[in-house]
Specification:
Length: about 90
């Protein structure tokens, strides 16, 4: 019984810790500001980005934009599923 409780506690803790990892920081409008690279999951570098469908997508390293461009809709969907709202690209 103790092992089950321990496993359950570990699962809850892991879930609680991973939520901010994928959602970033809330922007107050029902979504989260992008803080993590959609490719690697690391902190973004605001100097590395691409604009896609009027949205600015930030990445962690120079490798990631080319990977994103291979299947951008896949990564945009993952961001939507995680309630991450990319900022608007400058006009």
């Amino acid at each position: 019984m103790t092992r089950i409780k321990l496993a359950l506690c570990a699962a809850v803790l892991l879930a609680a810790v991973s939520i901010p990892f994928w959602t970033g920081v809330g922007d107050g409008e029902g979504g989260a500001v992008q803080s993590l690279c959609p490719i690697m999951g690391f902190d973004i570098n605001r100097d590395i980005f691409t604009d896609y469908r009027s949205k600015r997508i930030y990445f962690c390293c120079p490798f990631c934009p080319s990977e994103f461009k291979k299947d951008p809709d896949k990564y945009m969907e993952q961001m939507r599923d995680n309630n991450v709202l990319p900022e608007d690209a400058p006009a």
